[in-house]
């Protein structure tokens, strides 16, 4: 039986935001690159939001893998004031397609925040319902880094390749069989 958990935490960045590279703050870009390198082999998925100097991250996976990653993240000097908002058991990973999805402080997020009565993103003021809505919003939002920063590979790419290989072998075998039958018929006719 799987032992899946989801953790949601917030923190404050300790770095001064630098000029964006490819639309992403450079420190955040580096965090995303290590996340997308490390998370797949630990079967971890999730989303990272960065806005107004705050992080909001949701990580899903096997309990031991989530705990190990969170302990590493807690020691990371790039952020501070880490506060766990929620840690719960889940049946399935909800960010299945993302080793670490990235959502910047985009228009739709800011609009939702205004509905929360906030003009700036300050997750320390979120109540339980707002945390849930934030995760839903992040699940539905676009990731502008898709295809860059080692973005997630197309889902099931190796499986698709295997499928194509089998199809090619099957077609080649069929062509060979048809040729043999045709040859046999021609020989018989001669
Ligand atoms: C806000 C924040 C979120 C992070 N999320 C992840 C993550 O999802 N996966 C990960 O491997 N590292 C993450 N990191 C980076 C880790 O703290 C750590 O630097 C990294 O895992 C080290 O691995 P590396 O040596 O392969 O870069 C995060 C760091 C910060 C500050």
General form: elongated
Bound molecules: flavin mononucleotide
CATH class category name of the largest domain: Alpha Beta
Helix content: 40-55%
Low-confidence regions: 151-160
Task: Report the order of strands and helices.
Answer: EHEEHEEHHH
Q: Within the CATH hierarchy, at the fold level, what is the topology of the largest domain?
A: Alpha-Beta Plaits
How are the SSEs placed, and which strands pair?
Blueprint: E1 4-13, H1 26-38, E2 45-51, E3 54-62, H2 63-74, E4 79-89, E5 101-104, H3 107-115, H4 128-140, H5 157-189
Parallel strand pairs: 2-5
Antiparallel strand pairs: 1-3, 1-4, 2-3
Bound molecules: flavin mononucleotide.
Keywords:
single chain, 190 residues, alpha+beta, Alpha-Beta Plaits, 2 domains, five-stranded mixed beta sheet, 5 helices, 42% helix, elongated, binds flavin mononucleotide
Characterization of the model:
The structure is a single chain. The chain has 190 residues and is α+β, with helices and mostly antiparallel strands. Helices cover 42% and strands 22% of the residues. The chain folds into two domains: 4-140, Alpha-Beta Plaits (2-Layer Sandwich), CATH 3.30.70.100; 156-190. It has helices at residues 26-38, 63-74, 107-115, 128-140, 157-189, and strands at residues 4-13, 45-51, 54-62, 79-89, 101-104. The chain has a five-stranded mixed beta sheet. The termini are far apart. The model is unreliable at 151-160 (pLDDT under 50). The structure holds flavin mononucleotide. Flavin mononucleotide (FMN) binds next to helix 1, strand 3 and helix 2.
């Amino acid at each position: 039986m799987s032992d899946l958990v989801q953790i949601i935490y917030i923190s404050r960045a300790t770095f001064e935001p630098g000029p964006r590279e490819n639309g992403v703050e450079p420190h955040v870009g580096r965090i995303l690159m290590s996340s997308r390198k490390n998370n797949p082999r630990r079967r971890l998925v999730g989303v990272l939001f960065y806005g107004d100097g705050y992080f909001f991250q949701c990580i899903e996976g096997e309990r031991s893998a989530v705990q190990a990653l969170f302990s590493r993240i807690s020691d990371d000097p790039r952020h501070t004031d880490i506060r766990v908002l929620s840690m719960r058991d889940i049946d399935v990973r909800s960010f299945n397609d993302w080793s670490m999805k990235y959502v910047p402080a985009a228009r739709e997020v800011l609009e939702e925040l205004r509905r929360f009565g906030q003009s700036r993103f300050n997750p320390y003021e979120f109540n339980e319902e707002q945390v849930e809505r934030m995760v839903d919003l992040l699940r539905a939002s676009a990731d502008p880094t898709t295809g860059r920063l080692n973005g997630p590979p197309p889902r099931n790419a190796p499986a698709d390749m295997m499928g194509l290989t089998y199809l090619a072998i099957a077609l080649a075998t069929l062509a060979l069989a048809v040729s043999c039958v045709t040859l046999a018929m021609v020989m018989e006719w001669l």
